[in-house]
TrEMBL record:
GO terms for cellular component: phosphopantothenoylcysteine decarboxylase complex. GO terms for biological process: coenzyme A biosynthetic process; pantothenate catabolic process. Binds 1 FMN per subunit. Its cofactor is Mg(2+); FMN. CTP binds at D97, K107, P124, D125, I126, V127, F143, K157, K161. The chain holds residues 182 to 398 of 398 of the full protein. Residues 6-213 form the DNA/pantothenate metabolism flavoprotein C-terminal domain. It comes from Litorivicinus lipolyticus. This is Coenzyme A biosynthesis bifunctional protein CoaBC.
Amino acid sequence: LVSGQLAGQHWLVSAGPTREAIDPVRYVSNHSSGKMGYAIAAALRDAGAQVTLVSGPTTLDCPDGIERVAVNSALEMLAACQAVNPDGFIACAAVADFRPAMAAEHKLKKGQGDLNDVHWVENPDIVAAVAGAKRRPRWVIGFAAETENAIDNARAKRIRKGLDAILANTVGDNQAFGTDDNHLHWIDAHGDTDLGHAPKRVLAEALVRRIIDLAKE
Ligand code: C5P
């Protein structure tokens, strides 16, 4: 359906969770499976784009014809995303909001201090950094996983982060994280469109169709 329409364009997709090391054997992470981002990467490829997929740890195979850059932490993901100079960026990764300021050199032991001694600092906002960069990609698109008021919160988030569009989805109650289905709303400066409830692969195609329309504006 969308074959060839993104030929000549380079798209960057971030996907999956990040892992923030506490010590050599422990980390903080989240339940992101990476499925949505991987499906988007494949749909962009099918539309003819060159695709770089910056991925946190997942169990998924890299789709054919896509260059995958594997990362662990948010700081690694930021560096990997900033190393690419794409036409468009879709930030689908579930980046950990906080990281230990310093990972302990040795495994923390019971009886010697406790986890409250770990000092937490905020991670950089990768999509906002890319959207605000001097060499900004022409299109920057984010996701907003919300447990309530998904659309209103996503609208505000789109503007705050300087994004061309944002995809709102509701999480919690077994929705979105790890599942094969999702429900997405596309929100841009003109308004919003319900892309419906469907398998992530189908939603990824609907999203790429929106991107093709956006690229024509
Ligand atoms: O602020 P929130 O985490 O809800 O924003 C979600 C969007 O921002 C997603 O597109 C996500 O990939 C991106 N994000 C990011 N870096 C962060 C946090 C979120 O790129 N540190």
